[in-house]
């Protein structure tokens, strides 16, 4: 009788197929056919989840892009609202005018 999970299509006691077992290919010696089957199973599993993963990646990318644009837009908006540089420039003009007035008045 073969070991459980060694390719038995149906378990004789319960009549059910064996569950998949995790195999560490570095520890267990596998035949080239078993390695090829593992690669095929991994590829099939990866292709099965690809559309869902692609959708999530697109949504995540759009969310990050929207956040970046919001921060960029808010920065421009807040800089355009700042008037302290205009106030400093007005004060500098007034100071220059006072200096010129004093220089021409005396």
From TrEMBL:
The entry's keywords: Membrane, Mitochondrion, Mitochondrion inner membrane, Transmembrane, Transmembrane helix
Main location as per UniProt: mitochondrion
Spans through the membrane: 58-77
Location relative to the cell: Mitochondrion membrane
Pfam hit, one: Coa3_cc
InterPro entries named among the record's database cross-references: Coa3 (IPR041752), Coa3_CC (IPR018628)
All residue ranges annotated as the Cytochrome c oxidase assembly factor 3 mitochondrial coiled-coil domain in the record: 45-91
Disordered: annotated span: 1-23
Membrane topology: Single-pass membrane protein
Family the UniProt entry places it in: Belongs to the COA3 family.
Function: Required for assembly of cytochrome c oxidase (complex IV).
PANTHER family: CYTOCHROME C OXIDASE ASSEMBLY FACTOR 3 HOMOLOG, MITOCHONDRIAL, CYTOCHROME C OXIDASE ASSEMBLY FACTOR 3, MITOCHONDRIAL
Subunit structure, as described in the record: Component of 250-400 kDa complexes called cytochrome oxidase assembly intermediates or COA complexes.
Protein name: Cytochrome c oxidase assembly factor 3
Source organism: Rangifer tarandus platyrhynchus
């Amino acid at each position: 009788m073969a070991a459980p999970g060694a390719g038995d299509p149906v378990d004789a006691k319960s009549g059910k197929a064996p569950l998949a077992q995790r195999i560490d290919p570095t520890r267990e010696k596998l035949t080239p056919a078993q390695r090829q089957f593992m690669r095929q199973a991994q590829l099939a599993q990866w292709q099965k989840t690809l559309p869902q993963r692609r959708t999530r990646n697109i949504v995540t990318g759009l969310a990050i892009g929207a956040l970046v644009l919001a921060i960029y837009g808010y920065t421009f908006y807040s800089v355009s609202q700042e008037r302290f540089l205009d106030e400093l420039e007005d004060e500098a003009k007034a100071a220059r005018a006072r200096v010129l007035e004093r220089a021409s008045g005396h």
